[in-house]
Amino acid sequence: MRLIISNLFFLLIFSISSEKGYAQQQAQQISAKAVSDSLPFVEGDDPIVAMMDSLLASEFFSFYCFSDDTGLLNVNEFESGMVPSYTDDVYSQRMRLLDAETPMELVYNSTVKGFIDLYAVRKRALTSRVLGLSQMYFPLFEEALQKYNIPLEMKYLAVVESALNPTAKSRVGAAGLWQFMYTTGKMYGLEVDSYIDERFDPYMATEAACRYLNFLYGLYNDWNLALAAYNSGPGNVNKAIRRSGGKKTFWEIKEFLPQETQGYVPAFIAVNYVMNYAAEHNIYPVKPSFSYFECDTIQVSKKLHLSQIAHFTGVTESQLAELNPMFTKGIIPGNGRYSLRLPVESIGLFLANEESLYSFAASSPAPAEEVVAVAAPAPAPDYVTYKVRGGDVLGKIATRHGVTVNQIMKWNKLKSTRIHPGQKLKIYKNQRS
Q1: Which of 112, 186, 189, 209 sits 20 to 30 Å CA-CA off 75?
Q2: Is 317 a catalytic residue?
Q3: Over the stretch 120-150, which tens digit does the pLDDT of each residue have?
Q4: Could you list the residue range(s) of the whole structural domain that residue 51 is in?
């Protein structure tokens, strides 16, 4: 009996705490709504400038010619799910064609073939995702590699390192697209503190990777050895050179390198092959959330939470986090040093309402920490139907009704923040999620 009473008391306490937390959340939403409603708000972007942005994006799209249309890309008319295979002669011929187009040494052998099998057969789904993500990151990589006079094929190194996941972190602490360790990242100017980890910043990390690769190439005058040193460190490569009797190519010192590094250069060569011959293996890109030319950066001069930006602009928090992985706590420090990456269509709206956003951020409560507790019984659903008007964005609609963009998207099963005039949205008045 004592145990039952104790459990009932425990549940009562949690129920009260939950109600209190819910009341605080409601108060914060009401406060935020009052603040944002009192601020000037420009409903939409300048139509002429927006058209210019659209034309610019179209020009870039036409140049890069990206498509995720499997029917269009399946020029070999493979059946769905078919996994093609080829003879060594075919692989060798294709590799010779790739090798002729780069100063790097791309060879075909049994080790490379094993990694081709890994990416083209066993990890086909991963390769499809990488093909899609390449539209977000490869233009950035190519521009930086060209700046530092590094072979453009080096962009595939980030595929080997992170599978183009900007928040990737290894078991030993390497982080980001280019998998920098903390110390090496600091050596090449990547800041890491309580709010920022620039190893996750695609721009900053790519710049650092190019500088580091140039340093390594300067040591060995050989890109394959530079790759080996990128993976295991110059010290291990130097020891392998000594143990080999002074040999100076990767394949000659391979057996003296750490086990992981022995497969590193062959994996890099295999990725070069698979990314160029994906269609021949019946592999096609999965459309990414954004492409490189659908986004742009803007300087932020004052402290902002990503949730506050989402609340005011209509770009979801998850999208903001995906585009800005360097803000590890979801906070942009207010020292004016950092840029925010946004979808192009949201840049004009941000600029038109920038001062109002800063005022909103300064006046509204910081996002509350999530409280894990037993939820109190939810009141019966009570919603209104809102008809979208011209110039509406989800952020402004959410502010008017004291809810969040994510809630509106969930209630209406929206896959993106794009809405159109005349569209009807359900907005619940007493729902918590």
Answers
A1: 112
A2: no
A3: 999 999 999 999 999 999 999 999 999 999 9
A4: 39-65+294-369
